[in-house]
User: Fold this.
Amino acid sequence: MTVARWCVLIPCLNEERAIRGVVESALALGAPVLVVDDGSSDRTPEIVGALPVTLLRHPERRGKGEALRTGFREALKRGYDAVVTMDGDGQHSAADVPRLVAAAQRYPDHIVIGARLLDRERQPKSRRRANAVADWGISWACARPIADTQSGQRYYPRAALELVDLPAEGFVFEAAILIAATRARGLGVVSVPIASRYEGGLRTSHFRPIRDVTRITLYTIGQVIRYGDIWASYRRSRADAIVCADPRPA
Assistant:
């Protein structure tokens, strides 16, 4: 199986220090690149606008969820079969993208997550704890164990992109996509191990562990109740094995 058409999607907000390197590394993959600027007040739009990419701009900050929605809609409009997302702060390496695409070829009808399973000691303790809580809750809601539900480096097949209108905002949107894709669309989730990158040169994350994990947790509880099979879902999320793959691109 081959992936017919995919693009890279980079949502960004005030990333003038890192965005050029991120975009240029994505362009080096040879795939089309969409960049969604979420109302930056610095030179991010100017820098991106000088590069051979499609730049979509929000006039004011709307949150990561809305930035992803804008990118998903554009990808669907252009007829892409899949999207690979990368954050604009340099936390993700474009060198890992071919591995995600190779995993998608091996596991059709799956969302592929670049799971930060390598060098985990480099993650700030507060983030590690917050991610563990989110993994526990989202895995329960999805009725399967998932590694690193908070990673923004993902491969989304078209069936997941079509969930663009889910009523969830901010960082909750990425959790909502996982839950709806597995529960409503029957998609699987596979994780590809990637390195944890928290170099000092990266700007402070827009993710706020207490605030955002609280919002994600409340949303997840609602979804667990909505789907009804509360204890069966929990047992599957704890008993089944996480699906991990590390295929090398052909």
